[in-house]
Amino acid sequence: MREDLITLAERELNEVVTLLNESFCDDGLVFYHLRNGVLYLLKALAEEYNLDYEGIESISDLVALIERKTTVKFPEYMQPIIDLEEIMIPDDCTTSICYDPDMYGDILDAVESLKEFVEKEIESL
After folding, report:
1. Is the pTM of this model over 0.85?
2. Predicted confidence band at 106 (pLDDT cuts at 50, 70, 90)?
3. Residue 13 in contact with residue 41, Cβ under 8 Å?
4. I want to staple 37 with a disulfide (CB 3.0 to 4.6 A). Which of 2, 12, 62, 109 is the partner?
5. Alpha-carbon span 70 to 47, nearest angstrom
6. 10 Å Cβ neighbour count for 12?
7. What pLDDT score was predicted for residue 57?
8. pLDDT band for position 103 (50/70/90)?
9. Closest CA to 56 of 69, 44, 65, 67
10. Which residues, 6+ apart, have CB-to-CB distance to 87 below 8 Å?
11. Angle value at C-alpha 40, between 34 and 43, nearest 5 degrees
12. What are phi and psi of 34, to 5 degrees?
């Protein structure tokens, strides 16, 4: 199942790259796929530690669960990733984005670093 979660994360993150390369970029979709990719990565790590993450759909809650139940300590770059949930403000069936588009690079770099971090953590177990 962990491999499935990693595959799902990679699919979501590839979708982000595709969206960013389009002439009209939908910020809501970019953040939606980024958030999903991060959730899948964190669930893969939780799965590797046999943690019960069922029902947890929050980045910050997954990070807290993993840090509380394991020896994993996430690096500083996690804060902008955790902030993804605050950036996305639900508005009925649409999403309003309160975000500076110039900052995409920082979040993309942080998510890529998280992906590498999760892969190294899993390999070390």
Report:
1. yes
2. confident
3. no
4. 12
5. 12
6. 20
7. 93
8. low
9. 65
10. 31, 97, 98, 99
11. 140
12. -60, -50
Query: What are the residues whose beta carbons fall under 8 Å from the beta carbon of 19, sequence distance 6 or more?
Result: 25, 26, 29, 30, 33
* In the block, residue with structure tokens 């970019």: 30
- Residues 82, 66 contacting (CB under 8 angstroms): no
Tell which residue, 79, 112, 78, 98, has the closest CA to residue 31.
98
Q: For residues 74 and 84, give the distance between their C-alpha atoms in angstroms, rounded to a whole number.
A: 16
- Determine the Cα–Cα distance for residues 40 and 24; give it in Å rounded to an integer: 26
Angle separating helix axes 2-20 and 27-48, nearest 10 degrees: 160
**Per-residue pLDDT at 86 exceeds 80:** no
Measure the CA–CA gap between 94 and 72, rounded to whole angstroms.
35
Alpha-carbon separation of residue 83 from 1, 65, 80, 86 (angstroms): 27, 17, 5, 5
Look up residue 93 and give its two tokens. Answer: 């069936």
